[in-house]
Every structure is written in C-alpha cells, then in structure tokens.
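Review this today:
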Amino acid sequence: MAQAAAVAKPPPKRRKSVTPRRLPYLLIAPAGLLMLGFIAYPVISVFYYSLQHFNPTKPWRNGFAGFENFTKIFTDDPLFWDTLLFSAKWVVVEVGLQLLFGLALALIVNQTFVGRGLGRALVFSPWAVSGVLTSVIWVLLYNSQTGITRYLADWGIGTYGTSWLSDTATVFPAAIVADLWRGVPFFAILILADLQSVSKDLYEAAEVDGASRIRQFFHITLPHLKDAIVLSTLLRCVWEFNNVDLLYTLTGGGPAGETTTLPLYVANTSVDAHNFGYASALTTVAFVILLFFSFLYLRLSKFGGDQK
C-alpha cells in the first residue's frame, strides 16, 4: 500500500526561474539602472543647488536660499529676459530655416539622377562634423585677415579688416549661416528616410486624376511627412535652445551680449562667475520652459494621431 501511494503521488512542479514576459525587462535592467543613475543624479543635483547659495570662491555665503534665486530671476535680472528673448529668436529663425532647406534638399536627393549616392553623401556630411569643429571652421571662414571678407574686399565688395562676428549688424546672420551648415542635414536625413516609405501608387493615382506636382506635394507628401517633421522640429528646437558650443566659440555671446542665449548665460554664470546656485536656478527655469513647450507643441500638432 505504501509503495502504491508513493507511486501514485505526482512529482513536484518545477518552479520557473524567469517568466518569458519578464525576461526582456531583466536583460535591459542593468543598462536602464545605469542610465537612470547618470540622468537622475545630475537632475536632482540641479534642483537641489537651485535652492542654495553655492559659490566655491565665497564659501562663507553658502547656505539654504529657498526661492530667493528664482525671485531674483523674475524680478531683478534683466539679463535673464534678454537672453530668453534672444534664445526664442534664435530657435525660431534657425529651426525654421533648417526645416525649409532640409525639406528642399530631401526632395532633391530623393529624385533619381546620376551621382545620387555622392550627392547624398555630400549633403549629409556636415552632420558628421562635431559642433566645436564646425565652430572652428566658421571662425576661420569669418576671419577678417584670411577669411571670406578678405576675398570679398579683393573683389571690391566691402573693406579690408571687416569682421562680421564683431559687428552687431552682421553677427546674428553670420551665426545663423554657420549653424545652418550643420543643422540642415539633420532635417534632410529624417525627411528623406520618411520619403522612402511613401507609396508610388499614390502619386500615380494622383497623376491619373490630373493633380499637379504642387497638389501632390500638399495633399500626399506633406501629410505623410507630418510626424517626421513634428518630431525633428521638436528635437531641433530643444537642441538649438541649448546650443552653447557654436555661439561660445564664434562670438562668446558678444558683441555687447548680442548673441547670448539663456544656456550660454548659465555657462557664464557657473563657469566664469562660479555662482553655481544661481546657475542651477536658471537651468531649472529653462528645463520647465522646454518641458512646457514640448508638451504644448505635441498636443497642438497631434503627434502620432491619425492622418486624415
């Protein structure tokens, strides 16, 4: 009897160590925790120091400040509003022109022509250049002794010794052109990638119906590119708002503060003035502005929604 009962007893169930649904999350958990640490710690530190008076060169003044730094930003710092307005101007002009030229380049290199591969490589090559190297290239091009103005003066256009980066009337267009050279390929790459997925049957059907190239562009191409344009524009707006390397190398925020963006003002406040508490408060305000703008932009553009 005992032997029969032992035989009839079912074997114990083996416990699965990892369920298939949890396995992917466990595999990416180390990298996710590492990224969270590198991102969360700086963000929390900025929020913490924004509530402090922290200047390593004046340790006797360090201590809890509460919202004093934020009060100073909005009530007693005209440079904040000037740099914020210039940042908005920089982003609107720069991103708008990059989108326009990037869309045009994407439409051109999407066509079939001899040497299309080489043409695409030349169009996209500036995006592979780092921001600092781009700045150095354009500093040399704008050099008053050996750059563009020297050759223009040889042809009778302008005068010798002219520096576009030191003149308040020309510094903004000069900086815009320098950043356009590197920023336009970003839009061209993303838009061209999305153009590849547009069905040619749509264009053929439109041609049968008698639609012109312009109508095809506005009724087929643009609606299909909506999400790509919205996403690339948002990313580029955030990047251009935080642009420091190019303007710092080209102009240093000058002349007379004409090209000082809010992030460049933060860099000068922290690195040059060593006022890390106030710089952290400025960074926190910039973060809130970008977060609000991104949320509003995605809601108004209906990103990811159905295209009608």
About this structure: The mean pLDDT is 85. The chain has 13 helices and two strands.
